[in-house]
Input
Amino acid sequence: MIIALVQIPFDGPKRDRDLVVEQSLESTKIYRDVKGLRRKYYLNGEQAGGGVYEFATREEAETWFHDGWADWMEGRFGVRPTLTLFDNAVVLDNEKGEVRVDGKPVPAP
Output
């Protein structure tokens, strides 16, 4: 699994929660059919917004975050985002009460 962290820097105060929710809900239409995208978490912070994306494979993440992606995002938000990709082998899921390695439950230590 691949985790992508996208950060969009902002000048000024944290964006209004209701506006962020409205814009985020509207943008879900864009991400609903992205191949390999399992989840997207929308972020709203003091100095940045962005998202955490969970992809099935690195190839699928790199297909979405292609060479023109940053230009597209800059056109949407007026500022260039940063992107960091992480390999993610181990997940602790407290809601399900399990630990997974490469998507498969393993005995918790």
